[in-house]
């Protein structure tokens, strides 16, 4: 990911090359905020980057790629090759094929909230303490686990394996 300074320079350079003033980009983002972006004093959001790039008539990915290429001190061809390799990694992980399952129409479906599962060794340790006749509090202290986690396992109906 390019640094804020490098992206700032790319934005400023592109705006200047288009012959636009900061005020002329006012429909994309407030001139004061654009000044802060171009001086690397504030971060850009994806929404802002999309609006600015639309006004500059340049794809936002191209702006990011140019900044990344400059920062890595690599040619644009090398940058594109790197991006292709990264995209192939994501494709191999199944990210591209799984994307439709995250949407209903154009709306992003809510993610499933959840915590990491409790490791089976921890579950077995709690159940072993229960089988030995220890209290939940004693088990919590002995195993260094939250009392709520011990309580959840204690009343889960699971058996010692």
TrEMBL record:
SMART domains (UniProt xref): HTH_XRE (SM00530)
UniProt-listed InterPro entries: Cro/C1-type_HTH, Lambda_DNA-bd_dom_sf
Segments forming domain HTH cro/C1-type: 11-63
Pfam family, one: HTH_3
Protein name as catalogued: Fis family transcriptional regulator
A molecular function (GO) term: DNA binding
Superkingdom, taxonomy of origin: Bacteria
CDD domains, sorted: HTH_XRE
């Amino acid at each position: 990911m390019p640094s804020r300074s490098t992206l700032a320079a790319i934005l400023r350079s592109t705006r200047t090359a288009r012959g636009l003033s900061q005020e002329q980009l006012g429909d994309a983002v407030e001139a004061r905020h654009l000044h802060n972006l171009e001086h690397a004093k504030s971060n850009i959001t994806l929404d802002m980057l999309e609006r600015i790039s639309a006004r500059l008539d340049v794809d936002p990915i191209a702006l990011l790629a140019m900044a990344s290429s400059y920062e890595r001190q690599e040619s644009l061809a090398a940058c594109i090759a790197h991006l292709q390799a990264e995209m192939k990694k994501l494709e191999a992980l199944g990210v591209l094929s799984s994307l439709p399952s995250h949407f209903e129409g154009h709306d992003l479906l809510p993610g499933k909230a959840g915590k990491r599962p409790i490791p089976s060794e921890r579950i077995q340790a709690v159940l072993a303490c229960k089988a030995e006749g220890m209290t939940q509090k004693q088990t919590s202290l002995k195993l260094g686990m939250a009392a709520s986690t011990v309580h959840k396992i204690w009343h889960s109906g699971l058996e010692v394996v």
